[in-house]
Amino acid sequence: MQKGEKLWFIPDGYIPPESKGDLISHESICVLNCQERPAQLFITIYFEDRDPLEKIRYEVPAKRTKHIRTSELEINGEKIPVAVPYAIEVESDEPIIVQYSRLDSTQPELALMSTIGYPLKR
Fold first, then answer.
1. pTM score of the predicted model
2. Residue 9 has pLDDT above 90, yes or no
3. 39-47 and 118-119: which strand pairing?
4. Of these four, 29, 52, 69, 71, which has the most CB atoms within 10 Å of its CB?
5. 5-119: which CATH architecture?
6. Contacts of 11-14 spanning 24+ positions with Cβ under 8 A
7. Where does residue 87 rank: exposed (0-12), middle (13-18), buried (19+ CB within 10 A)?
8. What is the b/e burial string over 37-67, where b = at least 16 CB atoms within 10 angstroms of the residue's CB?
9. Within the chain, how many helices (H) and strands (E) appear?
C-alpha cells in the first residue's frame, strides 16, 4: 500500500504581516515522509501578479516529519513577501503526505488553521 502522493497543492497561502503577544504569526508546510528513503522536494510558490518562485529544494529524511516555515523558503535570495497572497505546489520524488498550517496572531484572540493539501495522483 502506498502512503502518500508525489504532487500536492495548497491554494491559500498568506504570511500575516504582524503579530501580537508572544506568538509569531507564521505558516508551515507540514510534510510526513513514511518511506525508507529521503524525499527530495521541489516547492513552487505562485502569486497573483508576479512570476513564481520555482523549484525551491528541500529534503525530508526517511521516516521523518518536517514543518517547513514558508517565511524561510528562499531561492536566489528571493523570499515570499509578507501580506501577499500565494499558492504552493509541492513535488516530491517519494510519496509524502502534506498538511498546511497558519498561526495568525495579528489579534489578541489568535487563530490556528490547518488543512490537508490537495494531492494529485500521477
1. 0.90
2. yes
3. unpaired
4. 29
5. Sandwich (2.60)
6. 11/87, 11/118, 12/85, 12/87, 13/45, 13/70, 13/80, 13/85, 13/86, 13/87, 13/88, 13/100, 14/83, 14/84, 14/85, 14/86, 14/102
7. middle
8. eebebebbbbeeeeeebeebebebeeeeebe
9. 0, 10
Q: Tell me the per-residue pLDDT of 21-51, one tens digit each, with 9 for 90 and over.
A: 676 666 889 999 999 999 999 999 999 999 9
Nine-digit cell string for 67: 514543518
Question: Roughly how many angstroms between the first and final C-alpha of the chain, as a whole number?
Answer: 15
**Between these two residues, 78 and 110, which has the higher pLDDT value?**
78
